[in-house]
Amino acid sequence: MQTAYTYNKTQYIWLTLVHRLAYLLFATSTYFQKHRRKLSYLTKQILPPLNADIVCPTIFDFKLCLNENGGHWIYYLGFYELGTLDVIRRCLNEGDVFIDVGSSIGLMTLTASNTIGETGKVFSFEPDKKRFTNLLNSISVNECKNIKAFNFALSSATKEIFLNSNLSTPRISQTNSNDTTIVKSQTLDTFIAEQNILNVSFMKIDVEGYELEVLQGAKQLLSSSDAPILCIECNTSLNGIEGKDIFAIFDFIKDCNSSFSFYQLSKTSHVVSKLKQIYSCNELNTNDNLYCFLPKHKTQLNSGRTFGEIDDRSSTLFNF
User: Cα separations (Å) of 61 from 130, 211, 212?
Assistant: First the structure.
C-alpha cells in the first residue's frame, strides 16, 4: 500500500455489523430509501467519527480505504448508489473493458473489477491526489490485478486545468485561486490510442459538472459503431465548467452518434429499479445518472432483466 491504513479487527467487525443493519433497514424500508441521510444519522450515533486512514468493509465483496477526505457514505452505511452499481453489474461481462472517469475512492472501479474478472481491464482516472491515494490503497488491499489508475484529468484537449480540492467533493474550477491546484489533462481519444485500448464496453463519468468537457475529448470513441455504454452524472446543481447545462450533454451525444438511446432508473441511483427510456431533455430527472445505449448493447443484454421489471437480487448481489 502507498500509506499505512489502519486495520483494526474489532473496529472492522463492528463496522460490518452496523453496515448489515443499515442495509437491512434500507432494503426493507421505503422511508429510509427516500431519506438516506436520516439512516446515516442513526449509524453516526454508534460509530466513531471517520478521522483516520482506515480499511473499511462494505456490503460488497471488497474493502475500501477511507479517510476524512472521502468515503463518509461508505463508512457510515457500507454502501452507496446501489441502483448504479446494479446497472454496472448487469451490463458488464467477463473480459470487458471499463473506464471510470472521476473514480474518487474507487467504489465503481472495484465493482467493475470484480465483475469483469482477471481477463477484463479497468482504466480509472482521479485527478485529486488525496482521493487518488485512497484509490491506490483500495486497489492494493483487494489485490486487484486488472486495474490501471491514473492521477490526471480527462477533458476536451491536452491542457492544464484548475482543481478545487477544498470542497466536500473536488471539482474543476474556471479560475485559479488559493483553493485550487493545477492538474494536467488529456483527451480520452488520445489516451485510448496511446494505450491501444480496443472495445471499451462501459464508461462511467462523474466529474462534478465537467462531464461535457470529458465527452468532447471522446468524440471519436462516441462516434464509433463500437461506442461503449455510458453512465453520466446528470445534475442541474452542477452547471458545466463553461456555463453549459446538462442538456448540452444530451444533444452532444446525439450529435456524435444518433443511434444512442437514453435511459434513467425509474427510481434513483440509490435504489435498484428498472431502466426507463428518455426521449427528450424535458423528461430528464436532473439529479441522477443518464445511461446511453446503442441498439447492439440492448441486443447483447438480457433485455427482460435490464430494461424490464427487475427481480429482487439482494440475495445474490451482496456478499454477506
Answer: 24, 29, 33
pTM: 0.90
CATH superfamily name and code, 82-317: Vaccinia Virus protein VP39 (3.40.50.150)
Q: What is the dihedral of CA 45, 17, 102, 269, to 10 degrees?
A: -90
Helix runs in the chain, H state only: 9-28, 30-34, 36-44, 72-77, 82-91, 107-116, 129-141, 188-195, 211-216, 219-223, 247-256, 295-300, 303-306, 314-317
Q: Can you tell me which residue has the cell 446501489?
A: 82
Q: Would you write out the chain's pLDDT as a tens digit for each of its 320 residues?
A: 455 677 788 999 999 999 999 999 999 999 999 999 999 999 999 999 998 899 999 999 999 999 888 889 999 999 999 999 999 999 999 999 999 999 999 999 999 999 999 999 999 999 999 999 999 999 999 999 999 999 999 999 999 998 887 777 777 777 777 778 889 999 999 999 999 999 999 999 999 888 999 999 999 999 999 999 999 998 766 655 555 567 889 899 999 999 999 999 999 999 999 999 999 888 888 788 999 999 999 888 855 445 544 444 333 222 22
Q: Are 153 and 125 in contact (CB under 8 A)?
A: yes
- Domains of the chain: which residue ranges? 9-77, 82-317
3-state secondary structure of 287: strand
